[in-house]
Structures are given as C-alpha cells and as structure tokens.
C-alpha cells in the first residue's frame, strides 16, 4: 500500500532529524467523501469497493485540533498518536447518515475496483486512484476498524462523529 509505505518512510526520516517530533496517524478522512459528492448527488448512491467492512473514519477537524493541542502543550515530544473517529462504521451507515442529513435517498453500492476507478476518473489523478484502490483493499480486510482513544484523551471530548460530519456538510451532498 503505497500511501502507508510513504508515511512510514517519512516517519523514518523524521527520526533522523535533530528536533522533537510528534507523529499523527489519522485513519480514513470523513472529508474525503465530498470529493465524490457530485456522484452521490447524481446517482443517489455512495460507492466503494469495501463491502460491509468497518472503518474508524476520522474528521479532519479533529486532526487539526489534535495538531494544535500537541503544538501548544508540553509533553508530546516523540509521541505517536493514531487518530480515529468514535466508531468503526460501514459505508452503508455513511450513506444512511448522508441521506438523513440531506433528506434525499442515498444508498451504498459495493463497487468493483474498476467501477470505483471509473467514478474517480477525472476527479483525482491516476496515481491517487491507484493508491486509493490499495487503501480500500486494506479497509476491506478489516485492517482499519480499530478505535483509538487519542482524540478524546488529548482534546477532553469525544471525536466528532459521522452524524455531525454529514449534517455539517449536507450542502455538499445536495441537502
């Protein structure tokens, strides 16, 4: 999986530098779904090659809040934080949340890899689509469902959830 390998390479490089480092390892971004919002609006469906696998998707607003916290507070040097949402959810559940937020029907479609690549053609560059296909194979194997307590521990509040995300971004999906 190229993206995970690239991240690991960057982390190894950071270890060689002569300054304090904090590593944030976020899971799948909830904010990635608005990039396919036009397809969701047009077809009334959210599609991905993932089946019923669960992923502990994280809101990028939580990633930013954690980054600010570790920059402003002492005691994080050398730490590695895995950032996840508050629950591991299926894409079916994500489609239901978008439908509830927009008031429009949205269903999940389990796409083949080639169908998924075709949806993203022209939306993302080919190298990124290839990387996403590798990521989705990782998700499909259930390797991204783990929940981590870093966000609530660092922020003193629960991680933002799918319902909040869908409501806050309903206009992107057509609501």
TrEMBL record:
InterPro entries: Ergot_Alk_Oxidoreductase, NAD(P)-bd_dom_sf. Gene3D superfamilies: NAD(P)-binding Rossmann-like Domain (3.40.50.720), UDP-galactose 4-epimerase, domain 1 (3.90.25.10). It comes from the Bacteria. This is NAD(P)H azoreductase. It comes from Pseudonocardia tropica. The lineage of its organism: Bacteria, Bacillati, Actinomycetota, Actinomycetes, Pseudonocardiales.
């Amino acid at each position: 999986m190229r993206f995970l390998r690239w991240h690991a390479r960057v982390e190894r490089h950071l270890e060689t530098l002569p300054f304090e480092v904090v590593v944030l390892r976020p899971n799948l971004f909830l904010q990635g779904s608005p990039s396919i919002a036009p397809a969701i609006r047009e077809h009334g469906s959210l599609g991905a090659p993932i089946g019923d696998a669960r992923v502990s998707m994280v809101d990028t607003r939580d990633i930013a809040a954690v980054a600010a916290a570790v920059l402003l507070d002492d005691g994080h040097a050398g730490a590695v934080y895995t950032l996840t949402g508050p629950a591991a959810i299926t894409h079916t559940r994500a489609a239901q949340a978008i439908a509830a937020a927009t008031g429009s029907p949205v269903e999940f479609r389990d796409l083949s890899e080639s169908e998924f690549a075709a949806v993203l053609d022209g939306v993302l560059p080919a190298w990124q689509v290839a990387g996403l296909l590798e990521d989705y194979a990782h998700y499909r194997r259930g390797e991204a469902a783990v929940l981590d307590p870093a966000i609530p521990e660092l922020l003193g509040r629960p991680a933002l959830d799918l319902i909040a995300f869908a409501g806050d971004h309903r206009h992107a999906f057509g609501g």
